[in-house]
Amino acid sequence: MFEKQKSSKQNEAPQDNTVAVQSPVSYGSSTVSNPRVTSMIGSSIVIKGDISGDENLIIDGKVEGKIDLNTKEVTVGNSGRVNANISAKVIKIDGEVKGDIAGNEKVVVSKTGRVKGNIVAPRVTLEDGAKFKGSIDMNPGEKASESSVTSISAPTKAQATSEKPKDGAVTTGAVKRS
Asked: SS3 string of the chain?
C-alpha cells in the first residue's frame, strides 16, 4: 500500500512553497530598492570635467577637472591618474594625483600613491614608500596666524656666552614663543 502511494508521488512535481523575489534593478532617474554604494571609473575611461554625486567612487582611469563628493569616499586605484582637486569625506590614494586634496575625515596616501598638491584633513596618513610634494594642514579650522607657534632657533654667539644655565643644565638652543 505504501509502495503505490510512493510511486504515484514520484511522478508528481514537487511542491515548493518558497517564492523567489528578485530585487528590481533600474537605470536612470527611477528609484531602486538596492541602491549602488560605489561607482567605478574603469582603467580605459577618460573623463574631462567635474564629478559630483552621492555615492562612493573608485577611479582606475584618468580624470581631469574637479571631484566633489563631500559626504562619500574617493579611492584612486593603482592605475588611476587624476589631475583635479578632490573633496570628499575619506580619500585614499593608491595611484597618482596632481591637485589639492580636502578630506573631511581623513586622507590616506598608500605606499604606491603619488601626490603633488596640498592636503587638508584632520587625519593624514602617508604610508612608507608614498611620494608626496606639497603641504599638509591637519587643523583646517584654525588659521596659521591664530595658532601659538613654538620655534626653535640656535642662539647667537652673544646669547650663548652671556646666558648661564641654572642648576647645571646644558642648553644648545633657545625656545622662542610667538
From this structure: CHHHHHHHHHHCCCCCCCCCCCCCCCCCCCCCCCCCCEEEECCCCEEEEEEECCCEEEECCEEEEEEEEEEEEEEECCCCEEEEEEEEEEEEECCEEECCEEEEEEEEECCCCEEECCEECCEEEECCCCEEECCEECCCCCCCCCCCCEEEECCCHHHHHHCCCHHHCCCCCEEEEC
